[in-house]
Amino acid sequence: MELSQDDAKDFLASFEVDPSDDIKCAAVGRLWESLLQKYPGVPFLMLRVADMRWSLNSRVTAYAMYLDLQRVLKDSSFSAWLQKARLKVLTEAVNTLRTYKTNTSIYTPSQRWRPNVAQDRLPASSCKLQHAEYVVFEQLWSRLTSSGITLSTYLNYHCLETNAIESVLQFNAPATAKLTLEGFSNQAGIPDLSLTSGGIVRDHGQALSILQDTRKAMDEIYKLLENPAFELTIETVCHLHKILMRTNHILAVRVRANSMLALTHVGVTRQHCAINVSVAGKDVKVQFCPFDSVDAELTLFCSRFNELMRQDVDPFAAAAWISHVFVTIHPFEDGNGRLSRLLASIPLLRKQLPPLTVAIPWQSKYYHALNWTRANGDGDYGVLMKLLFEATQSAMEDLHTLLTKNARAQQIQMEDLDEEFDSEEVAMDI
């Protein structure tokens, strides 16, 4: 299989990139990965991608690709190297898994992994918000839409905030307002300086691409729900993750003032790349599902999710269960929080409500509610349900305030320009 003329040109040009430019190197990595999907089985392309993955510590997936390459090359010296590499990769994976499962004392006792977490009790019918709370919520949404704020505008705001709360990227207020109103395409005029230190991505090109991916994933959720018989499967979850994390696959990030390349596996669970993850906060350390059990846990989650959708449950209570179980499994290397909020929005969307949005001011309370629900483990979703409701309601209010202030600032700017123009005319008359 040969590359097309344009793809071959892009591939050859990628070797001219300055290796010290992490942003361009990340783009090259994404190009190579996308070309390999388009042209599977091209030996030189397979070698470049495998070498890149190996250098970025993705040893399991790199080794799998080396094996595929050897089936094409049938090279004896390469075969000898593969034997040594196999021992290294397997030893690392086995030791990592054993340590993760046995060294549980380093995790907060209430936050250690519990198998079959998707079997946690579904929300009871009594777990629900008050009717008056929904009345206020729907009135607020109606006030937003009547003031000219469309659903698309709100979805853009969701995309910005869902990335900000995960410390991926964060724009200042003027840029946030502009992107919320105009979307994430054709925004080359937004300078890198509008990205604050609140996110690891400090390049506006990468940031805008991530936001475009997030919006595409949200749009895909809406498209899936057009089918009244829609049911969630592990394949659908992986498909959504692949859309959501396309740019995050290989990214130039800023960590403690240093720029570096980071590779994240997209569209495949941690079981396929033999990676364990945990999260350490100020006062808590959380242990998620060991990688060898991820697929079984995620399959059970999908089954229980579909069971939940067939029941008459408060949408925010359902969102709380989905958030709790999905985040506790943590099926992917990265992007679990963002994807959990997309999936947890499905019960709301089915009731014609806007999707969940948890903004930066709610970050600490949000994580506390997740940890509290995980520690409780008895099917009490009241704390998390209330948090998701209040955070989303607050996000709608914040969006209205942000856009109102932005409109006022633009009006003042126009008035200042008019005054300046009038002054110039007077000077010319004199």
TrEMBL record:
This is Fido domain-containing protein. PANTHER family: FIDO DOMAIN-CONTAINING PROTEIN, FIDO DOMAIN-CONTAINING PROTEIN DDB_G0283145. It holds the Pfam family Fic. PROSITE patterns: FIDO. One of its GO terms (molecular function) is ATP binding. Keywords: ATP-binding, Nucleotide-binding. The keyword Repeat does not apply. Residues 232-390 form the Fido domain. It comes from Pycnoporus cinnabarinus. The keyword 4Fe-4S does not apply. ATP binds at residues 334-341, 366-367, 376. The active site is at residue 330.
